[in-house]
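ARCHIVE CARD
CATEGORY: sequence design from structure
SOURCE FIELD: tokenized fold
FIELD CONTENT:
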């Protein structure tokens, strides 16, 4: 759409895809739209949205300012029950299946070449089911904070079938967008790493209990892990040799 008056004009566009599929896997009904309104002093106002099955799940509003060759951003993005199941169609052979929603808000400010991102994200009843393990892992609902391109984990917990969590403390720093780094501590005590029945698709089944005390540090392209994982005596697990002539 194009709207023009004597002093201003506005451009907007919308697109909808019904029954979107990827590699024969259903994604759903997707919609998106963007509106552009130029203003004074080389300012451009933008508004965009993303919808899923006729419900708005993400929005972005803000301003882009041009000063010579320099562009600055002032944009706010919001996620409202963004369904993570959208990603399932893109996982090869559906090896992992996501459930739950993503909520939160992020602000993006500063230079377009090195913007600063701040805000928080929450995982609402999010879990992942790993098919070959026959196991489901539940993620912490508490917000994850982002402050000036630094993602902070504060005892972020991952659960399976017991109340003992696997916890993550530390930060992921992406102030240098080309070389993000991590400084994380991983801990668990008598953690149920696996508690899965045998199925026709199982690669591993049984129960695995572990203690974990480790660190993960360095650039994301070459992380270094130090520490230990102790396999506890109450473990009873079977690995299926699918490619062995003895199978």
């Amino acid at each position: 759409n194009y709207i023009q008056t004597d002093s201003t004009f506005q451009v907007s566009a919308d697109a909808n895809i019904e029954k979107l599929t990827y590699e024969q896997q259903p994604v759903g009904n997707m919609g998106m739209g963007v509106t552009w309104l130029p203003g004074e002093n080389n300012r451009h106002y933008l508004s965009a949205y993303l919808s899923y099955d006729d419900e708005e799940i993400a929005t972005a509003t803000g301003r882009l300012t041009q000063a010579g060759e320099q562009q600055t951003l002032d944009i706010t993005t919001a996620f409202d029950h963004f369904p993570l199941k959208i990603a399932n169609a893109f996982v090869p052979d559906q090896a992992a299946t996501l459930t739950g929603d993503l909520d939160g808000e992020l602000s993006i400010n500063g230079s377009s070449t090195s913007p600063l991102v701040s805000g928080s994200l929450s995982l609402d009843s999010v879990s992942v089911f790993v098919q070959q393990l026959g196991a489901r892992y539940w993620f912490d609902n508490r917000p994850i904070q982002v402050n000036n391109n630094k993602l902070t984990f504060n005892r972020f917990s991952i659960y399976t079938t017991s109340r003992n969590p696997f916890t993550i403390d530390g930060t992921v720093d992406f102030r240098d967008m080309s070389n993000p780094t991590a400084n994380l501590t991983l801990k668990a005590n008598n953690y149920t790493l696996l508690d899965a029945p045998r199925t026709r698709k199982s690669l591993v089944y049984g129960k695995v209990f572990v203690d974990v005390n480790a660190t993960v540090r360095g650039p994301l392209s070459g992380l270094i892990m130090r520490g230990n994982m102790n396999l506890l005596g109450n473990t009873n697990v079977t690995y299926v040799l699918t490619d062995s002539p003895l199978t």
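CARD ANNOTATION: The chain has a mean pLDDT of 91. Residues 75 and 184 are 29 Å apart (CA to CA).
SHELF: design records, drawer C
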